[in-house]
Amino acid sequence: DAGVIQSPRHEVTEMGQEVTLRCKPISGHDYLFWYRQTMMRGLELLIYFNNNVPIDDSGMPEDRFSAKMPNASFSTLKIQPSEPRDSAVYFCASSSPGLAGGRGNEQFFGPGTRLTVL
Amino acid sequence: GDSVTQMEGPVTLSEEAFLTINCTYTATGYPSLFWYVQYPGEGLQLLLKATKADDKGSNKGFEATYRKETTSFHLEKGSVQVSDSAVYFCALRIQGAQKLVFGQGTRLTINP
To answer: From CA B62, how far away is CA B76, in angstroms rounded?
Structure first.
C-alpha cells in the first residue's frame, strides 16, 4: 500500500493567488482529515469527511478555505485568495473504523504539503 | 471540552538517558489515548496506544500507561537514542468518534 499521498510536497505562491492542495487517502479508508501545522498554533484539525461527506468543518479558519471530496480516492483543500498567514504544513490523514487487528483507531498521515505564501 | 496538555518542550537529552514526556487529558466518557511521532520532514506516525484504563501501550522501547485516576498517559523510554529525535504528540479519541484531539507536541533532541 502506498500510504496517503499528498501533492504537491512544496508550494510557494504569492499573496492573493489560489492554492489547491491534493490528497489521495489509503484505498478502503472511509474517513479523511485535513490538518494544518504551524509553530504558533501546533496541529489543528480543519475538516474531516466520512464517505465523502463533510462531517465537521468547524476548524476551517475562514471562507477563503474550502475542501471537497468528489470521490473516495481524492480530496482537495483550496485557499482563495491566499495570505502570508496561511503559510504552514498541511497534512491529510485517513482512517477506517473497520480495519482489522485493532488498527481501526489509527489515523494514517501523509507526508504533508509545505505552503509558503509570500 | 476535550483537551490534551503535554509537557512543554523542547527537551534535550544525552544518548542513553531516561525519557519522560508528560501528558494529561480532559475528556467526557472513556477516551482512547495515543502517542504519535513526527520525524523531521515527515507526517505523523502512530507510536503506541491504549484503549482502556490500566492498559499499557508499547513500541520501539517506548511505553505509556493509561491512568484514569490521574487522567494521564505519560510517555517513557529507558534509554534513548539519537534516532529518537522527533516531535511527539499525545492525542485522545472519544469513544464512538473518529476525530483525534492532539496536544501541542513536544520536540525531543537526543545528543550523542
So the answer is: 6
Dump pLDDT digits (tens) for A42-88: 899 999 999 999 999 999 988 999 999 999 999 999 999 999 999 99
Please give the angle made by the CA atoms of A29, A32 and A38, to the nearest 5 degrees. 140
Q: What's the CA gap between B65 and A35, in Å, rounded?
A: 27
Q: Supply the pLDDT for residue A77.
A: 98
Is B11:B1 a contact under the CB 8 Å cutoff? no
- Interchain contact, A95 vs B98, CB within 8 Å: yes
Q: Is B43 in contact with A42 (Cβ distance < 8 A)?
A: no
Contacts of B44 in chain A (CB under 8 A): 43, 91, 93, 107, 109
Q: Cβ contacts (< 8 Å) between B98 and chain A: which residues?
A: 31, 48, 50, 95, 97
Question: For residue A103, which phi and psi values (nearest 5 degrees)?
Answer: -90, 5
Here the cell at position A29 is 479508508
State whether B99 and A45 contact (CB < 8 Å): yes
Residue A84 phi, psi (nearest 5): -55, -35
| Closest-CA distance of chain B to residue A107, Å | 8
Pairing of strands B11-14, B106-111: parallel
